[in-house]
Amino acid sequence: MPVLILGARSDIGLAVARRFARDGHPLQLAARNAIGLADDAADMALRHGVAVTLHEFDALACGGHAAFVASLPELPGIAVCCVGLLGDQIENERDIAAATLVLRSNFEGPASVLAALANAFAARGSGTLVGISSVAGERGRASNYVYGAAKAGFTAFLSGLRNRLTRHGVQVISVLPGFVATRMTAGLALPARLTAQPEAVADAIASAVRRRCDVVYVLPVWRIIMAVIRLIPEPLFKRMRL
Questions:
Q1: CATH code for 3-238?
Q2: For a tag on the chain, would you pick the N or C end, based on fewer CB atoms within 10 A?
Q3: Which residues are catalytic?
């Protein structure tokens, strides 16, 4: 069965697609303006000898997600949601429309399409759903709390979905990458030792699917960092610049 990549135009989405193609999986690449992925699809099909199809998909058009899933030529065995939008915290504080877009792009849209896939996978009794969330969702910080709030919601959604679907033979994986060097983070001063490449995220996802993991920190150091941040007492946390 094919692997569906939602948000396939993103750097992480393309890296995940290439990783699964290398392993011999047929691909369904879903994104806005999906035709723009034609060259990438042709390259993966030729390089790895797998079938690659393109599918128009808008994560924010939640009312059409059930129809989108039904329209796929074959229900995938694995679905990876790479949809997301970092946004700008200062802009989000000043512009409610900008904040709403970040919230919808990181929580509402991804949760909606995975809910539609979850129902189809549960009815079949098998499959793997992968959601890319963020360590930013583990505690609200002044520097990115709108984005963090959306990711916190998505992480909780994935946890609940996993609890619900385990009895139906469906695996749900939460991926918490930390910093990733992509177009979305271009221009940010990211610490090299805490920053993963898209290919590392793809490798972590492929490994998690194979080992049937539940929660994955792409760089293990983030598990320690976030454990420490969660333990900081609130009176002290309020005075910190994070």
A1: 3.40.50.720
A2: C
A3: 147
